[in-house]
Input
Amino acid sequence: MDLLSDAIAAVRIGQPTSNRLSAGAAWCYRFAPYDGAGFHVLLRGSGWLVPAGGPPVPLGAGDAVLVPHGSPHTLSATPDAAGAVPFETAVDEPGGRTEFLCGKYRLARGRRHPVLASLPEVVHLPAEPGRHPELRAAIDLLGAEVTERRPGSAAVLTGLLDLLLVYLVRAWLAGRPDGGWPQALRDPEIAAALEALHAEPAAPWRTEDLAARVGLSRATLGRRFTALTGQPPMAYLTWWRLTTAARLLQDTELSLPSIAAKVGYGSPFAFSHAFKRQFGVAPGGFRTR
Output
């Protein structure tokens, strides 16, 4: 199982969207807070991303930026965000000196995976030659599809936008050698433990069973897992089971007993009690809402 793909699939709602825009000499666009994640790719020219808090980020041609928590920000020709207008009112200026690709993903914040929650407010990936070739290829393909709108573009764009999100997060994780979730995904035993829990959430896991699976003692697994992920293995398993259940309630028509069984609960009553404790609403109410 691929934990990063699981983490994204668990929170994604609906289809991502994107726009390609050219701008003239002076431009300044404001992006309101959004219940999801946004991205920008500067295809040509230069500019600045000005977050609501923190210093402006200089952008060059080919740079990619992910705003993973939907924070308010501004894209501008200068590091000054004064006079910004809503991006929704932007008018394309063909032939303008600056061209960028903007898009967003709608995400369910209530079940955001901690690997996504660990991302900073702004993830800036400069266009460095030879680095992140998959990301660069996805950007090139996405830019071409948005411009040409050939037959089948709707299906292609959805897939490319999904790829772009994975590559952006993957590139950030690869550049973070310190502790926490980036290290957890590179630690062979902890990554194997996470993969086992994701692959078989309904299994009757105990910490000693998981430790035996990955070749560690119970104490060592508990200590390392907690230090890197922020919670003990069985607490993470409970969270993942209920997060998976929430996605099944949202995306499928499976009955509550079927979902309870799929995520490791012996009865719908036990499942409903645990689900309400985490999400503040019973499974039936969550599905209706």
